[in-house]
Design a protein that fits this description.
The complex is a heterotrimer of chains A (313), B (431) and C (303). With 313 residues, chain A is an all-alpha fold. Chain A is built from 12 helices and 2 strands. Chain C is an all-alpha fold and 303 residues long. Chain C contains 17 helices and no strands. Classes of the chains: A mainly alpha (313), B alpha/beta (431), C mainly alpha (303). Chains in contact: A-B, A-C, B-C.
Chain lengths: 313, 431, 303
C-alpha cells in the first residue's frame, strides 16, 4: 500500500515538518486540558491569588451542593437550546437550500443572497438583534406598536428572551448551513429525481426517498458542527444579547440561573466574570471536556469515515 | 514635593538626554464625559509635572477595573492608581497588592473629607484609599406624570406604601406608560434600604469589628424590602430591562417618560435634570422612599475611591498620590459635582458651593446631599465590609429576580442567605 | 404518466411563481437583519432610533465616527493582524505536517496522527481556564524555575508566557490545527504517487517538492482551509475577551460590545456601522475563495 512506500527518507526533515504542529498542540491544547483537571481540584481566588487543594469539592458543589440546582438547570437548558438550534436550524436551512437548488431564472442570484452570510459572526448577530429587538427603540417593537399596539420586553421575559437567543443563533448559522447543503444538493444527479417522478412519486415522496437519504451524510456532518456551534461558538451572541439572563419562571423551577445561560457561559462567569473562581470554572471545563469527548466518539462511531470539517482547532 | 520635582527636572535638563517621562498608569471605570473630565485633569497635572505622565486607562466596569488591576499586578506590571468600587474595598485590602495612602511618605491630610465618606474607606483605623466619586440613591420624579395622577409633585411619597398609593392613583388616572416605577435590579439599592432601616448587612458589626461570617438576608428589614418589590411587581408597577445592574436601561425607561418614579444614583442628577427640562416634563429629586415605620437612619456611601498599588517605585507612588490630590482638590470636586451629581467629598468644596448659593438654586442637587448629611452614624450606615461582596451582590440580585419571576420571598431569600454565607466561608478560609 | 414527467421538467407558471415567492421570503429572512443594519448605519442619529427604514446619507459619517471616536479602526487593525497571522501560520504548519505524514517514513506514524487528531476533542473555548494561567502568568525567572515547572506538569501552572494584552496570546495557541493536518493528509493521499516519484527521480528535495508540486496541486484545499480559518479567527470572541484587557489590543468582535456599552446612551447608528464594517473582511475572503472552498470540500467529502 502507499503507506508503505513514502518518497523521502530523511527522518530529520520529517520531524522538522511535524515539530511546529506537535509543539503547539502539546503546549496549547494538551497542557491546558490537563490543567483543567488539575485546577478543578483547587479552590482558587483570582484576586487574593490563593490556591488551595480541595479534592473533588468543586464537583460535589456542582452536582450535590447548594449550586447543584443551578448547574442542573444550566445543563438542561444547554441541551434544549442546542436541540432547538440544530433541529430547527437544519430544517430551515435544508428547505432554503432546496428552494435555491430549483431551476428557475435568477437561481444563481438567489443562491448568492442565501450563502453570503456564511461569514457572519455570533457577536455581529447578537449586536444586530439587540438593536432590532430593543424594547424601546428597536424596529420590531416600533412595528408591533404601530400594528398591534404592543411592545414586548424581549430581554425581560424569560420565554421571549430564550426564543430570541434561539432565533438569533439559528439565523446566524443559516448561511453556513445553506452553503453546505447547496454543495451537497448540487452533487445529487437530477436523473434520480426524474426517475422517481417517472415511477409516480409525488414531491414529498421524492424528497423522502431520494433527496433526504442523499443529504444524510451532509446532515450528519452538520448536526455535529451545529452542536459544537450551539454549545461553544454561540457565546458571543449570548454575551451581547442577554448576558445569560433573565431567570426563568419559578413555577417551573427554572429560576436557579438565567434562562439563556449555557454551560460555557456559566463557566466564563464563574472563572472570569467577577468572582474569579478558576477552580470552580475548571470543574465545569472538565464536565465540558467529557461532553465533547462523548460527542466525538458518537460522531466517529456512527459517522464512519465522514470528514470533520468544522471551525474548531 | 514641588521642589523635588524642580530639582529632578533640572537634573534631567542637565543630563540633556531625552529622559522618558515616568508613566503613572491610572485604571478607571468611567466612559464618555466623565472619562474626559479625568483625562482633562490628567492633562493639566501632566503639564505642571513634566517628569511624569498620568496615563488614564478606561475599563468597562468597576468589576473589570479591579480584576484588570489585580491581573496586571500579578503579571508584574501594576498600574500606580486604581479606581475601586466601595464593595471591592475588603478584597483590595486582602489582596495585599495595595499600599494605604497614609503610609506613603509625605503628608496626607484627611481633615477636609466629609465624615461618612472617610468612615467608609477607613478599615481598622487606617485610611486605605483616596475618596473620589461618592454618591447615594435618590428618587427621581416625573412631575408631569405626578400632575396627571392628581398628585402634588412637590410632595412625593416617602414610604413604600406611599409609592404604591401613588402608583394606584396613576393607574386610576388612566395612564398608559409601561410602568410606575423603575430602577436597575441592583443590590446597591437593597443595601441602601437596609441602611435606612438601620439594619446591618452582615454580622460582626457589618464586618467592621471582625470578618463577617453571616449575611443577614432573612432579617425582617431585608424581607420588608423584597416584599415591597414583589408587591410592586405583582401589581405591574415595577419594570426593568431584565438584565442585572443595567443602570442605563432603567434610566432610559424613565427618560422616555415611561415611568413616574425612578430610583438611581445621585450621580445622575445632572443628566436626568437636563433631560427632564429638555423634554418639558421636569424631573425633580426626592428622598429615597423607605420601609413604613422605619426611622430613616440614612444612606450608605456608594461609588468608588482611588487606591495606590504596591510594586511601583516610591517616587511614582508619591507623584500618583499628588495627582489624585490635585484631581480631588476643592475646585475640581466642585466641577465634578456639577458635571455629574456625585458629592463633593471635601468640606471646603461644599462650603464654597454653599456660599455661591448652589444648593439653594439647584434643589435637585440639595435633596441628594441633605440625605447624606442627615445620615446617623452607625454600623449599619457605615456600610458592610465583606470579602466576596461583589459575588454576594450577584446572589442578592438573582434572589430578587427570582421573586420577580414568581418565587416566594422567603424561599428566595433563604436560599440567597445560604449561598452568601457559603461564599463568605470559602473566602474566609483563605485566612 | 407522460404529463407528470413533463411537469417535473417544465413547471407550470403557478408553481414557478410560488418558488420565486418562497425564494424571496427566504432571502429576506437570511439577509433582512443585515439589510436593516445597513440602512440604520446610513441614518443620522435622530432617525436611527425611529421606525424609519429609509436610507439616509450619514453612512460615511457613522463609519468614520465609529472608526475614530469609538476605536473601531484599532479593533479592525488588531483583527486583521491576528487573522492573517493565524491563517497563514496554520495553513503552512498544517501543510508541513500533512506532508510529513504522507511522504515520509516516521516510526509510529498512526500514533502521531492519532495524537494530532485527538485534539479535535479539545475546543479552545473549553480550555480557557487552563490556557489563561499559561498565557498570562509571568515567565519563569530562572532556568531552575523553568525546570521545576517542567518537572511538575500536574501542579497548577506556576509560570506562563506573560502574553496578556499582546497579539501573541491570540495568535500562537491557534497556529496548529488537527482539522488542517487531516485535510491535507487526505488530499495528499489522493494525489497519484507517480507524481511524487517523478519528482524524486528528478532529484527534487522535500522543499522543492512541497513548493513546486504539492502547493500548486492543493490550491483548493488551501483555499478551503484559508476560508475556514480566516472566518474562524476573525469571529473569535471568548478567548480575546478573557485574555485581552486593553482596548488598543482588542479584536473587533469584542470591540462591538465595547462600542455598545460606551457612554450613557448607545449610539445605535455607530454600532450598526461597526457591525457592517466588521462583517466585510471575512465576507470578502469567502467570496474570493468561494470556488476553491466548494471544490476543496467536495473533494474531501468523497473520502
Amino acid at each position: 500500500m502507499r503507506e508503505g512506500t513514502p518518497v523521502f527518507r530523511s527522518r530529520t526533515t520529517a520531524w522538522l515538518l511535524l515539530v511546529p504542529t506537535l509543539v503547539i498542540l502539546v503546549i496549547f491544547l494538551y497542557y491546558p486540558a490537563a490543567q483543567s483537571f488539575v485546577l478543578s481540584m483547587y479552590r482558587s481566588n483570582l484576586i487574593l491569588g490563593t490556591r488551595k487543594f480541595i479534592g473533588l469539592d468543586n464537583f460535589r458543589e456542582l452536582f450535590t451542593g447548594l449550586l447543584a440546582p443551578m448547574y442542573r438547570q444550566v445543563v438542561l437548558q444547554s441541551i434544549v437550546f442546542s436541540a432547538a438550534v440544530v433541529i430547527l436550524g437544519l430544517a430551515i436551512s435544508m428547505a432554503f437550500a432546496m428552494l435555491a437548488n430549483q431551476k428557475v431564472t435568477g437561481a444563481r442570484f438567489y443562491r448568492l443572497l442565501l450563502i453570503w452570510p456564511f461569514a457572519l459572526s455570533p457577536a455581529i448577530a447578537g449586536t444586530i438583534f439587540s438593536f432590532l429587538f430593543n424594547p424601546q427603540v428597536g424596529a420590531v417593537n416600533h412595528f408591533l406598536r404601530m400594528t398591534l399596539g404592543i411592545a414586548p420586553r424581549w430581554l425581560d421575559n424569560p420565554i421571549l428572551a430564550f426564543s430570541l437567543v434561539v432565533g438569533a443563533a439559528i439565523w446566524k448559522e443559516l448561511g453556513y448551513n445553506i452553503v453546505f447543503y447547496l454543495a451537497a444538493l448540487q452533487n445529487i444527479p437530477g436523473e434520480l429525481n426524474e426517475a422517481a417522478a417517472i415511477d409516480g412519486a409525488n414531491a414529498w415522496q421524492r424528497f423522502r426517498s431520494v433527496t433526504l437519504p442523499l443529504l444524510s451524510p451532509m446532515t450528519f456532518f452538520l448536526v455535529f458542527t451545529n452542536v459544537a456551534y450551539a454549545f461553544f461558538e454561540v457565546f458571543g451572541l449570548i454575551d451581547i444579547l442577554t448576558k445569560g439572563g433573565p431567570v426563568g419562571p419559578s413555577a417551573l423551577h427554572l429560576d436557579n440561573a438565567g434562562l439563556t445561560t449555557t454551560m460555557i457561559y456559566r463557566m466564563y462567569q464563574d472563572g472570569f466574570g467577577g468572582t474569579g473562581s478558576l477552580g470552580f470554572a475548571g470543574a465545569q471545563g472538565v464536565v465540558l471536556l467529557f461532553l465533547v469527548a462523548g460527542i466525538t466518539v458518537l460522531q466517529f462511531r456512527y459517522g464512519g469515515r465522514n470528514v470533520h470539517y468544522g471551525g474548531g482547532s | 514635593m514641588k521642589r523635588l520635582t524642580i530639582v529632578i527636572s533640572l537634573l534631567a535638563l542637565l543630563v540633556g538626554t531625552a529622559y522618558a517621562q515616568t508613566k503613572i498608569d491610572f485604571f478607571e471605570a468611567f466612559s464618555g464625559p466623565r472619562q474626559q473630565w479625568i483625562q482633562d485633569r490628567a492633562n493639566e497635572w501632566n503639564k505642571q509635572n513634566p517628569n511624569y505622565e498620568v496615563v488614564v486607562t478606561p475599563k468597562s466596569s468597576y468589576r473589570d477595573t479591579l480584576n484588570s488591576a489585580i491581573l496586571a499586578a500579578r503579571q508584574g506590571n501594576p498600574p500606580a492608581l486604581v479606581q475601586i468600587f466601595e464593595v471591592g474595598s475588603q478584597q483590595a485590602k486582602d489582596s495585599g497588592l495595595f499600599v494605604p495612602v497614609g503610609s506613603i511618605p509625605g503628608a496626607f491630610d484627611t481633615s477636609d473629607y466629609i465624615k461618612p465618606v472617610l468612615d467608609y474607606y477607613t478599615i481598622d483605623g487606617t485610611v486605605n484609599s483616596i475618596p473620589f466619586n461618592s454618591s447615594n440613591a435618590v428618587m427621581y420624579v416625573n412631575n408631569a406624570l405626578m400632575t396627571k395622577a392628581g398628585l402634588d409633585p412637590k410632595n412625593p411619597p416617602k414610604t413604600y406604601s406611599g409609592i404604591i398609593k401613588a402608583c394606584d392613583a396613576l393607574r386610576a388616572a388612566g395612564d398608559t406608560t409601561d410602568s410606575c416605577i423603575t430602577f436597575a435590579l441592583h443590590s446597591w439599592f437593597f443595601e441602601q434600604w437596609m441602611a435606612e432601616q438601620n439594619a446591618p448587612m452582615a454580622n460582626n458589626g457589618n464586618g467592621r469589628d471582625g470578618r463577617a461570617t453571616q449575611v443577614l438576608l432573612t432579617s425582617q428589614p431585608a424581607l420588608n424590602i423584597v416584599n415591597w418589590i414583589k408587591e410592586l411587581n405583582d401589581k405591574g408597577y415595577y419594570t426593568y430591562t431584565g438584565k442585572l445592574e443595567d443602570w442605563n436601561g432603567s434610566e432610559a425607561i424613565f427618560l422616555q417618560g415611561q415611568s413616574m418614579f425612578h430610583i438611581d444614583s445621585t450621580s445622575e442628577v445632572n443628566t436626568i435634570t437636563k433631560a427632564g427640562k429638555d423634554g418639558g416634563w421636569i424631573a425633580t429629586t426626592a428622598e429615597l422612599p423607605i420601609a413604613d415605620g422605619a426611622d430613616r437612619a440614612g444612606v450608605v456611601i456608594g461609588g468608588a475611591s482611588v487606591w495606590i498599588m504596591k510594586g511601583v517605585p516610591a517616587d511614582v507612588q508619591q507623584a500618583a498620590r499628588s495627582f489624585i490630590e490635585y484631581m480631588t482638590n476643592t475646585d475640581n470636586m466642585i466641577s465634578w459635582h456639577k458635571l455629574t451629581g456625585y458629592f463633593p467629598v471635601r468640606i471646603s468644596s461644599i462650603n464654597k458651593l454653599d456660599q455661591a448659593g448652589w444648593f439653594r438654586d439647584n434643589p435637585n442637587y440639595a435633596v441628594a446631599f441633605n440625605q447624606l448629611l442627615q445620615t446617623k452614624s452607625s454600623t449599619a450606615t457605615a456600610g458592610a465590609l465583606m470579602g466576596p461582596y461583589p459575588q454576594i451582590r450577584t446572589i442578592i440580585e438573582e434572589a430578587i429576580q427570582k421573586v420577580l419571576n414568581g418565587a416566594s420571598v422567603d424561599s428566595a431569600m433563604n436560599q440567597a442567605e445560604q449561598l452568601a454565607n457559603q461564599a463568605l466561608q470559602q473566602y474566609n478560609s483563605n485566612f | 404518466m407522460a404529463t407528470r414527467t413533463a411537469s417535473a421538467r417544465q413547471r407550470r407558471p403557478k408553481t414557478r411563481w410560488l418558488i420565486h415567492l418562497l425564494l424571496i421570503v427566504s432571502c429576506l429572512v437570511v439577509t433582512g437583519p443585515i439589510l436593516f443594519a445597513l440602512i440604520k448605519a446610513t441614518q443620522p442619529t435622530t432617525q436611527v432610533i425611529s421606525a424609519s427604514l429609509i436610507p439616509g446619507a450619514q453612512l460615511w459619517h457613522n463609519v468614520s465616527n465609529a472608526w475614530v471616536q469609538a476605536d473601531l479602526g484599532i479593533y479592525m487593525r488588531n483583527s486583521f493582524i491576528i487573522a492573517f497571522a493565524v491563517t497563514f501560520g496554520k495553513t503552512l504548519f498544517s501543510l508541513m505536517a500533512g506532508m510529513a505524514l504522507v511522504y515520509f517514513r516516521i516510526p509510529f506514524k498512526p500514533v502521531v496522527f492519532g495524537f494530532i487528531l485527538l485534539t479535535l476533542m479539545m475546543p479552545t473555548q473549553v480550555l480557557i481556564v487552563g490556557l489563561f494561567d499559561l498565557v498570562s502568568k509571568q515567565a519563569p525567572p530562572t532556568w531552575q524555575a523553568l525546570f521545576s515547572w517542567i518537572a511538575h506538569p500536574l501542579a497548577p501552572t506556576p509560570y506562563g508566557f506573560n502574553w496578556s494584552n499582546s497579539y501573541w496570546a491570540i495568535i500562537v495557541p491557534f497556529l496548529a490545527s488537527a482539522t488542517g493536518v487531516f485535510l491535507f493528509r487526505q488530499h495528499f493521499m489522493s494525489i497519484p504517487l507517480s507524481l511524487a516519484d517523478a519528482a524524486k527521480i528528478d532529484g527534487a528535495g522535500p522543499l522543492r517538492f512541497l513548493m513546486s508540486i504539492l502547493v500548486p496541486m492543493s490550491t483548493n484545499t488551501i483555499g478551503a482551509l484559508a476560508v475556514i480559518q480566516f472566518v474562524y479567527v476573525w469571529n473569535q470572541y471568548l478567548w480575546p475577551l478573557v485574555i485581552i484587557r486593553r482596548t488598543d489590543r482588542q479584536v473587533v468582535q469584542v470591540g462591538l460590545n465595547l462600542i455598545i456599552s460606551q457612554g450613557q446612551d448607545t449610539d445605535w447608528g455607530l454600532v450598526m456601522a461597526g457591525a457592517i464594517v466588521a462583517l466585510i473582511p471575512p465576507l470578502i475572503v469567502f467570496m474570493l475563495l468561494q470556488e476553491q472552498f466548494m471544490r476543496g470540500f467536495a473533494l474531501s467529502s468523497e473520502k
